[in-house]
Design goal:
544 residues; alpha+beta; D-Maltodextrin-Binding Protein, domain 2; Dipeptide-binding Protein, domain 3; eleven-stranded mixed sheet; four-stranded antiparallel sheet; 15 helices
Length: 544
């Protein structure tokens, strides 16, 4: 029993004063919490390969990195120790040294040390998975070498003094792997290098093992997630502090927001997270038995166009489509005002944000018509293309977004949009294969710096994962200068130039910036929806 406070109660009986202590106790916590979601793991739970929101959140529940963000973080300064207890940087910013926590063990009992840090980064950088974060973010360009100084000290030597390095290392892709479950096959990537789902063997389905939870079960049918069970890891380094709060977390996957909402209202789940429609959220706000949580929004949604072939290998055609997007219609119709119009890839509220796409139009159908007229398109001979969206709840209200976006673009009178739908894993495969003409995609932050919303999308080496085949040497150079400069005024100028060039090239077209929502029963605590967008399973609990 934990004593949380003492209360002195005074009783007067027949003129005699008596005292006794009441000892309130911490409320009991249920052993099991059930979470419902429409999201799913896109590919796998290997940090060297996975590059999707839900996959990353499961990886972070099963593993640990050198550092992390404190719950409720408001910016890049809110970094706390995890597997590293302290860190320092050289005066020139070229070397970062981390002192590791001692006595930490993987879930199989193997003691963690500096060799595991080097192995994790060498493996992921060496694999160079074209669809993974290490290529997408450019770790191989950032980190020159990882050196084991001693058993509990590791040093990173950088190519240049990157100003965002510390916040980068706090990302889920930097979760440590266990060499027993994460083999290093070779110096170049192939599909067999990553660890994928193994039916009936949850331990073989993930290569981590230092986190607050272990993966007790994972069921997929036809590549679609059905259920997961996370069980508290007795070897977790912070277990003595009562982390994780809940012993078992069961995750149930639902086909739609409506079925997830019904499960929440019927008490079948304790938590509903990703993705609920605005209508469902507003309805549940009126339910006195439920709590709707709203968090900081650094999620952005944007339009991609495949530049490998006609018609989107033509810059002016991409500009024409961009000029036909009515953001007001999307924000007000789909999200009922619970989103913000976005005119650049850098989120509102983040440094160097510049509303450049306002200059293209919102919408400007005259401009669309003029640009397309140069290619012979008009009201009787329209530009026609397929627009893809996902159907499995990874993004909020994807179908409605697509329908309104279609109506917005077609209102130009010179474009026909054919909607196509794919389940989330299939959409990732189609993206990799380059078979979609245009598609709606979204982004959650890897690290809290404007670079994270620019480099993975616009630098030739970075946007390999997105596979839109955009390339501009001028853009590459500007991004490289911005990444390697630590002076705020210089970075501000460079990111202004980057965004000015973005409206000319239209590699992607920003649409809106959304917020994060979760719904729980009134007894659920430990929900944090902060600027990192991280979902911390290990802090959730249900009071009994």
């Amino acid at each position: 029993m934990t004593i949380v406070g003492l209360a002195i109660v005074i009783i007067v009986v027949a003129g005699v004063i008596g005292y006794y202590l009441t000892i309130p106790t911490t409320p009991a916590i249920k052993d099991t919490l059930v979470m419902g979601t429409t999201d799913s793991v896109e590919t796998n739970l290997d940090p060297a390969h996975a590059y999707d929101y839900f996959g990353w959140e499961i990886i972070r529940s099963l593993g640990a990195g050198l550092i992390d963000y404190e719950p409720g973080a408001t910016g890049p300064g809110d970094i706390v120790a995890d597997l590293a207890t302290s860190w320092s940087v050289s005066s020139d910013g070229m070397q970062w040294t981390f002192i590791l926590r001692q006595g930490v063990k993987y879930d199989d009992g193997t003691e963690f040390n500096a060799t595991h840090v080097k192995y994790t980064f060498d493996r992921a950088i060496g694999m160079a998975d074209p669809n993974g974060a290490f290529v997408g973010i450019g770790f191989g360009d950032i980190i020159q070498d990882v050196t084991v100084v001693d058993t509990h000290t590791v040093r990173f030597d950088l190519a240049t003094p990157y100003p965002f390095f510390l916040t980068l290392i706090a990302g889920q892709e930097c979760v440590m792997v266990d060499p027993k479950y994460a083999p290093m096959h070779g110096s170049s990537w192939n599909a067999t290098d990553s660890i994928f789902y193994t039916e009936g063997d949850p331990r073989a389905s993930n290569p981590v093992g230092l986190g607050p939870y272990t993966l007790a079960s994972w069921t997929r049918t036809g590549g679609k997630d059905q259920s997961m069970k996370l069980v508290a890891n007795p070897n977790y380094w912070n277990a003595s502090a009562g982390i994780p709060k809940t012993k078992n977390i069961i995750i149930q996957f639902y086909q739609s927001s409506s079925t997830l909402t019904l499960a929440m209202e019927n008490g079948e789940v304790d938590v509903a997270f990703r993705q609920l429609t605005v209508t469902d959220i507003n309805t549940m706000k009126l339910n006195t038995n439920l709590h709707v949580w709203e968090g900081t929004g650094t999620f952005v949604q944007y339009l991609c166009m495949q530049e490998r072939y006609w018609p989107f290998n033509e810059t002016k055609i991409r500009q024409a489509v961009g000029a036909a997007i009515n953001r007001t219609m999307i924000v007000n119709t789909v999200f009922q005002g619970q989103a913000q119009k976005l005119y650049t890839m850098i989120p509102i509220g983040m440094s160097y944000h510049k509303d450049v796409f306002q200059n293209l139009g919102d919408p400007n159908y005259t401009r669309t018509q003029e640009l397309l007229a140069g290619y012979g398109f008009n009201a009787t001979h329209k530009l026609e293309f397929d627009l893809y969206y996902e159907t499995t709840g990874h993004y909020p209200q994807s179908q409605q977004q697509a329908q309104v976006l279609k109506a917005s673009i077609e209102a130009s009178g010179v474009i026909t949009v054919n909607l196509q739908s794919l389940e989330w894993p299939a959409m990732g495969s189609a993206r990799n294969a380059g078979t979609m003409e245009a598609w709606i995609y979204g982004w959650y932050p890897d690290y809290l710096d404007p670079d994270d919303y620019i480099q993975p999308f616009m630098q030739t080496s970075g946007q390999t994962w997105l596979n839109i085949n955009y390339s501009n040497p001028e853009m590459d150079q500007l991004i490289e200068w911005a990444r390697g400069n630590t002076t705020d005024s210089v970075r501000n100028t460079l990111y202004g130039q980057i965004q000015d060039l973005m409206i000319i090239d239209c590699p992607e077209i920003p649409i809106y910036q959304g917020s994060a929502y979760a719904v729980t029963s009134l007894k659920v605590k430990g929900v944090y929806l902060d600027i990192t967008q991280n979902w911390r399973h290990w802090l959730l609990y249900v009071e009994q």
